């Protein structure tokens, strides 16, 4: 993991996880922890979604 990137801790994700959907159909869900960390990274950095580091997964997923 890059030191400049934001990553949710185990404790932070444990608190968020009960609020995530569990009954989804269709496409398999992506790694929620990775995507949420990417969203927070972009919001904290003030950057553009398109410039999000690829470590967080598809940029379009972060944006949506």
From TrEMBL:
Classification via Pfam families: DUF4096
Domain Insertion element IS402-like per the UniProt entry, residue ranges: 8-64
InterPro entries for the chain: IS402-like_dom, Transposase_6_like
Protein name (record): Transposase
